[in-house]
Amino acid sequence: MIPSKFTLLGHEIEVVIDNQYCHDHECQGRFLEWDNKIILADRYKTVRSWRKYKQSIVEHTFYHELAHCLLYYTGNKIWLNEQLVDTVGGLLHQYNLTKE
Q: Which domains does the chain have, with CATH numbers?
C-alpha cells in the first residue's frame, strides 16, 4: 500500500523507512521538500527496545506526508497548514482503502 517512489510534475519522490531519523527528529514522518523524499517510521524506540507501530498508523502517516507533498507542488504555502494537510491526507487514505 505504501509505494517506494512515485512521480509528481516530473519530480520523482522517494519514500523510505528511517526509524532513526524519525526518532532523532521526534516525528512519525516527514516530507523533505528539498530532497523530494518522504521519510516514515514503522517503529518507535522505548527505553529497552524498538517497537512496531500498527500498520494503520504508518499508512495514515504516509498519506499525511503525501498531502504535504501534493500541496507543496501547488506552489502555495498551504502545504504548511497541518490541519488542512491532516484532513486531505485522511481523505486520500480513506478513498484508497474503500475504492472498489
A: 5-98 (1.10.10)
- Ordered per-residue pLDDT tens for the chain, 100 residues: 899 999 999 999 999 999 999 999 999 999 999 999 999 999 999 989 999 999 999 999 999 999 999 999 999 999 999 999 999 999 999 999 999 9
CA-CA distance, 88 to 82, in Å (whole number)? 10
Q: Rounded to two decimals, what is the model's pTM? A: 0.94
C-alpha distances out from residue 41 to 3, 10, 74, Å:
14, 26, 26
